[in-house]
């Protein structure tokens, strides 16, 4: 799963590099080594790899690379199928962003009380991580603005389709700027994903990491 390619071989800021070292992340996993050069080059990327292969850091480093901290607007949106996954992704992003001061990551998930989410939205954030239904609800009520999103991430896209989130995802995407980078990660790649990819992504590079037996 792990390659011998160091993170220092890719074009990340020195603060992100130093933080990776302090976290004990020295070499990239296969999926990171294959997707990160394309992601940092600004391409739309589909990454397929099994659970535990390190997909979160691949897209998290990509969105942090695109982020302007001084601009306190939502610049990255990560959509996950469940609250548990969204919470895990938010923890990983906060860990990787630790070296960058004052980055605000907000989670917006169904099943969590509305009041605190509305309050947090009034304060603002750089990065939103959440589940489709709740994000859509905040959009429809005009509480969430995605006009400055430069990175749109779909995590666990296969599970999102199983759960019937296509319509919510299309609504969310329609609130994002046309000009944006799209990243889609998934453990499996069912035929149904193609339709979603066709609607959301632009000439994506597809990277599949297969397990060697
Ligand atoms: P996936 O989303 O593919 O299922 P995760 O992103 O959750 O996998 O990563 C699995 C675990 O591997 C996490 O605990 C994460 O902190 C760790 N990890 C990811 N990339 C690296 C790396 N390059 N070096 C060391 N640990 C890593
Ligand atoms: Mg994952």
Automatic annotation (TrEMBL):
Provide the Helicase ATP-binding domain boundaries: 36-207
Q: Which UniProt keywords apply?
A: ATP-binding, Helicase, Hydrolase, Nucleotide-binding
Residue interval(s) of motif Q motif: 5-33
Q: Give start and end of each DEAD-box RNA helicase Q domain.
A: 5-33
Q: GO molecular function: any one?
A: RNA helicase activity
Query: What family name appears in the similarity comment?
Result: Belongs to the DEAD box helicase family.
Which protein is depicted? ATP-dependent RNA helicase DbpA
The organism encoding this protein is Pseudoalteromonas viridis
Instruction: List the top taxonomic levels of the source.
Output: Bacteria, Pseudomonadati, Pseudomonadota, Gammaproteobacteria, Alteromonadales
Q: Which residues of the full protein are shown?
A: 1 to 213 of 463
